[in-house]
Structures are given as C-alpha cells and as structure tokens.
Write a structure and sequence with these properties.
With 82 residues, the chain is an all-alpha fold. Helix content is 57%, strand content 0%. The longest helix has 16 residues.
C-alpha cells in the first residue's frame, strides 16, 4: 500500500494574511455570513473565493477581481481604517 503524505502548509505571509482578513471583513460588512453564499451570488467559483479568504492565490489579478466584487477601487480596498 502506498502512503500519501500531506504537504505541510506553508506559513502565510503576514501581509497576505492581512489581505485575506480584509476580504473576509468586506464580505461580512455586505451582510454575508457564508463565503459560499457570497461567491454564488457574485458568480465566483466557491472554491476560488474561499482561497482568497485564506490568503491563497493572491496575485495582482486576483486582487483586482476581488476589488471589483466589492465595487471598490484598489485604493479603497487598501485604505486603512483609523
């Protein structure tokens, strides 16, 4: 029997973790408790959106897509609350 070992998860970069938290926060501010419901309502593959909220697959093009989902510019997306 061949044993398959799980790959250890790479530690997430603190800045990427902050982006993921921002995406999750924006979804909740829109009134969605479930990322699946948000993804379905916005015609985004559920698994892909879930990766955004986990800080995975965070490329520039992904950030542009996420900002558009929330009807925001990238400047608005990255604006820090005081």
């Amino acid at each position: 029997m061949i044993s398959k070992k799980k790959k250890a998860a790479k530690p997430i970069d603190p800045l990427v973790a902050k982006l993921a938290a921002r995406i999750r926060q924006l979804r909740k501010e829109k009134g969605y408790t479930s990322y699946e419901d948000f993804a379905n309502d916005h015609d985004v593959p559920r698994a892909q959106y879930g990766r955004y909220e986990k800080g995975q697959n965070m490329r520039y093009t992904s950030l542009v897509k996420v900002a558009k989902l929330f009807n925001m510019t990238l400047s608005e997306f990255f604006k820090e609350e005081k």
